[in-house]
Amino acid sequence: MGFIPYGIISKSHGLAGGVRLIIHSGDLSNLESIDSVYIRTGDTEEFTRYNIEGHSLSGKHVVLRLEGINSIEQADELKGTEVFVDDSQIEPAGRDEFYYYELEGLEVFDSNNNLLGKVIRLNDSGPQELLEVRLTSGKEVLIPFIEPILVEVDIDNKKIVVDPPPGLLDL
Q1: What sign results for the dihedral spanned by CA atoms 62, 67, 71, 73?
Q2: pLDDT of residue 91
Q3: Do 49 and 11 share a domain, yes or no?
Q4: DSSP alpha helix (H) spans, 11-149
Q5: Structural domains of the chain, count
């Protein structure tokens, strides 16, 4: 069993202990197949399993009711924590598809096959998706995750090819 990052608890919802979850990918298609989530709190490597008692949609967000979280105070303690799921609960990505978490750690190359750096994460919180990349120099940059800048995503070979416009990596 492996754990994959699924979302972040943004805040409590209601008085009975509901939590609002922002799903990393924004894709709700796997939600029905997930019956429990795992949360790591503090600096520990230990995960606590929470069975999902129910879920509903609130705008673009998902509200989860977790077993054992029965008050707004308990829900507030989970604010800002990352939620993980057992990878066996997620349907495999289709051909030429991938999950956001699969991009983390991939090497990023330019169209001339020069190593630029590694993906830290995909940021989808704004109007467009942005790759957060740590360049080989140590500097962190944001690269729009759109064509024509995005040339190729090769999960099997753990690489992404981009064609950034002049100056983008200097910002």
Answers
A1: negative
A2: 73
A3: yes
A4: 72-77
A5: 2
Read off the amino acid at residue 12.
S
Cα(60)–Cα(141) distance, rounded to whole angstroms? Answer: 27
Residue 95 lies in a domain: no
Q: Answer yes or no: do 58 and 123 share one domain.
A: no
Domain span including residue 122: 100-170
CB atoms within 10 A of CB 40: 15
User: Which of 54, 89, 124 is the last residue before a domain boundary?
Assistant: 89
d(CA 69, CA 67): 6
Query: Which residue's entry shows tokens 């989808």?
Result: 124
From the list 171, 170, 4, the residue with the least C-alpha distance to 87 is: 4
Q: Rounded to whole angstroms, what are the CA distances from 19 to 15, 34, 81? A: 10, 16, 11
Q: Indicate whether this model's pTM tops 0.70.
A: no
Regarding whether 111 and 150 lie in a shared domain, the answer is yes
pLDDT in tens, 41-83: 767 778 899 999 999 887 667 899 999 999 999 999 999 998 9
